[in-house]
Amino acid sequence: MVRQFEKCEWFRYKKLRLASLKESPSSFGSTHDIESTITDTGWEKRLVDGVKSNLDIPLIALQGEFLAGMAWGKIDIDKPQVANLYQMWVSPNHRGKNIGLALLTKLKEWAIKAGAKSLRLDVTINNGSAHHLYDSFGFVKSGSLKPLREGSIIKTQTMILVL
Fold this sequence. Notes:
163 residues; globular
């Protein structure tokens, strides 16, 4: 099941986000070292601000009672025609069960309802399973490769889905 996080679930958000950064350190713009210093109050504020915003949708994927994955959709107020996908991650124990597809489907529905014309993401070029998922969902490569973060040798590729 994929649904929006509730404001009171900041502890679940924190657990999933830190797990994603630890398990896949070469997949995100931030790092476990950086985000593990965030206070509980900071995690709560981040999630509450995202849940109450009509420009954000923080999603949680559950398999029964287990935390299976997450993703965060965001529309920048200056570019309302583009919805961005961040923090997409599925727990290794739950991969291969269409959770990534369910997260993408929910994000696409949200983006269309919000009036966006495209859904945009950046993915590391060495993440073959993510590329396969995004390709099969209809995303196409756009633009040149960029570093994952400042000083990184890992490159990312922007991909866009026209809605």
